[in-house]
Write a structure and sequence with these properties.
493 residues, alpha/beta, ten-stranded parallel beta sheet, 10 helices
């Protein structure tokens, strides 16, 4: 009691202190407590430290202590609480209010029950929550259950070893709001009965640091679920090792990272190449995921081809959103050529994984042909080249017609000799002009007044049909080229 009044740190060597005495001191039953609070190190705390509904007159720093029973602080109001390096059989702090910070640095917390080994449901912490290097375990529930947590500072779990057995996740941060950053760097998070991290609708105003995280889960919703989460700064997922026995490795559906996202293909895919075939089964959900920029490391952009590989081979079903987000990022960077390649890859993936969305076989065939001839509207030069080849084919047919004979006549010959015993050949230029005249829609050259297909020859009908087919192709290609260059046809999304 004297140490509490003077602010002196009480260093113990395993001596026992009653938990009830600490509670009474915090309530001010024995007079004023020094503003520095109760400071005890190395003590053995006997009994339950019951701070439920307590409005403490001072903070408590109980470091390196051995607690025989759990610490409870339901709906408590504390200036601060420091239990760093202590051994605790569970911390129950739902609806806890802490004015400065809650420190559990290096603590060993072994709890039980669905409430969580560290239970901070709906808690409010004006400072930071520090769990870095802590060891938290629960064989019948979550390791850290902090649904709806409000922290004005940062949440620090770097280097922590967190293991639980809960369908809702070993670390539960759904609906939490963190004013600073969330640091999980090099943390080991394990859950045999659900996801490793469940942080749906999480809001982090600062940075999300998941570098080097080793996460193991068993849940269809993702080993790490950030469904609908919002990160105001950067988010790093570099050097992670994520294992999920029954679902996604990483769920980023409808999440938003305002800053840069550091996520490379090797984090998810062990394949060396980004070819069309990938045998790595790891899946991510990128539907509706928005981000500011992609980087492999500070100042080093991620290859758009690697990110495209993730979208094509490591998402469960076809979704247009991830392609559009990647295209938007490349467009903002001024890489229009990459944008076209990404959007073409999107259409190919649509045909490969969701052909039913295109309609019947005729529509799917047209979609395939459109891709071949026009790159789905993104490669109009390819359409122009196909149009040029069709025109050359029409001219070639005309020239060929002048070299096919039938009973003294040529299939293509001078009009004035149609009724004669023998036909008069056209010049090569006239024959090419004949093919172009018949092949070009609405663009007669006038050459057919001198040189045309002789309808009395056996092969005239065959050449006519062939030129009709080319004419239809030229019609279609000309329309696609015009629409592509003028933007008359809306490109698919």
């Amino acid at each position: 009691m004297e140490a509490a009044r003077t602010g002196e740190k009480l260093v113990c060597d395993g001596e026992a202190i009653r938990a009830r005495l600490i509670r009474e001191l915090l309530l001010g039953w024995y007079g004023p407590v020094d503003p520095g609070g109760i400071r005890v190190s190395g003590a053995r705390i006997t009994g339950v430290l019951d701070l439920d509904s307590v409005t403490a007159c001072a903070g408590a720093k109980l470091t390196g202590c051995l607690f025989a029973d759990p610490v409870t602080a339901w709906n408590a109001h504390l200036p601060w609480l420091d239990l760093s390096r202590s051994w605790i059989p569970g911390l129950s702090g739902d609806l806890l209010n802490v004015e400065a910070g809650l420190w559990l640095t290096g603590a060993v917390i072994v709890g039980s029950g669905k409430g969580g080994a560290v239970a901070l449901h709906g808690a409010r912490i004006t400072g930071s929550l520090d769990l870095h290097d802590a060891q938290v375990g629960n064989t019948s529930g979550a390791a850290v259950r902090a649904v709806g947590l409000e922290v004005s500072g940062s949440v620090l779990m770097s280097g922590a070893d967190l293991s639980g057995s809960s369908f809702r996740g070993a670390v539960q941060l759904s609906g939490a709001h963190i004013g600073g950053s969330l640091a999980l760097r090099s943390a080991k998070i394990t859950n045999n009965g659900g996801g490793a991290v469940r942080a749906d609708q999480l809001r982090v105003e600062g940075v999300l640091d998941c570098r080097g995280v080793k996460a193991t889960g068993d849940h269809f919703g993702g080993a790490i679920s950030l469904l609908g989460a919002h990160v105001g700064g950067d988010a790093s997922f570099l050097d992670m090792e994520v294992v999920n026995r029954s679902g996604l490795a990483l769920d980023l559906e409808h999440a938003q990272v305002v800053g840069k996202i550091f996520l490379v293909r090797s984090t998810v895919c062990a394949e060396a190449d980004a070819d069309s075939v990938c045998r790595d089964p790891v899946l991510v959900d990128l539907n509706g995921f928005k981000f500011g920029a992609l980087e492999a490391s500070p100042g080093q952009p991620v290859s758009w081809r690697d990110w495209l590989h993730l979208i094509r081979h490591h998402t469960e079903i076809y979704r247009p959103g991830p392609y559009q987000a990647l295209a938007s990022a490349e467009r903002d960077a001024g890489h229009e050529g990459n944008v076209r390649r990404i959007l073409i890859a999107q259409q190919k993936d649509l045909r490969r994984r969701a052909p039913e969305a295109l309609g019947n076989w005729l529509t799917r065939s047209f979609h395939w042909l459109w891709g071949v001839l026009a790159g789905y509207g993104y490669l109009t030069r390819r359409t122009a080249l196909a149009l040029l080849l069709a025109l050359m084919a029409a001219g070639g047919l005309g020239a060929w017609a002048g070299h096919v004979t039938d009973g003294g006549h040529h299939v293509g010959e001078r009009v004035s000799s149609f009724g004669s015993a023998s036909g008069r050949p056209c010049t090569t230029v006239e024959l090419v002009g004949l093919g172009l005249d018949r092949g070009l829609p609405l663009a007669p050259t006038g050459v057919r007044a001198r040189c045309d297909l002789n309808p009395d020859t056996t092969w005239a009908a065959a050449f006519t049909i062939a030129i009709w087919i080319l004419q239809a192709a030229i019609w279609g290609l000309a329309t696609l080229a015009l629409a592509g260059y003028t933007g008359l046809i809306r490109k698919p999304t």
